[in-house]
Sequence to fold (239 residues):
Amino acid sequence: MNNNREIFAPEIMSDGSYGDRFSFFESDLVSIENWKPKSNYEIPFFFTTSGNYTVPTTLGEFANGFPDFISLDSGNLVNLKNVTVHETADYGGKVFFGGSQAYTSVNKTNSVFLSDLIDAAKKRPDDRRFIIGETKTSVGLYPAKDVCFFDMWDPKKNYHVPRFHNQNEYIAIILTFKKCKKVFPYLFPATPSHLINLSKVTGYDEQSYGTEITFKGTDYTCPISKSKLDMLKKILDIN
Fold:
């Protein structure tokens, strides 16, 4: 990896509940697994030396994780630092962002305080985290400071998921393990549902039921297939 990016992700505790942290540093990443918190529902799960995390799946998780962003109307969460033009009327209002076509609505209550909210936001520091997302043509990590607003959308029937808008396009949140492979291409595929950070590997433990990879800085272990173990031994020069 070229730098140590701070990645936005809600913390998951050992009992499956959400914690009070919303990011981890890329250098702490140990493994990504394909996680099934519910039947017929799979999302990535991040094991790190500083805790465990998953991808955000609701607007509420973004609201909790980005307290400096403001919900101006039902279904949106706005980065007021990037508002360049706003308008208000009897119905409420709208906020616009740069020279783009992006805008979102403001309800009547918030329109009364809109100018004060924007002035206060401009004084706050930029958010330094990155968000895992995908456009129509690419996947990657996008700076949170460039976000104009978050909302929800339906890419297919009965599938309501978060997305965010910058000045050029909307970006959907990555919700699959498969796409994480493209975001973190340096991770090693230990199994079809496990990606591991080779810089964290300390060794392996062969048992009758299979082989587990061990990592520094954590008690977490990960299975590995026989063919991948042979590759790993050559890469790390371990016996």
About this structure: Residues 108-122 form the longest helix (15 residues).
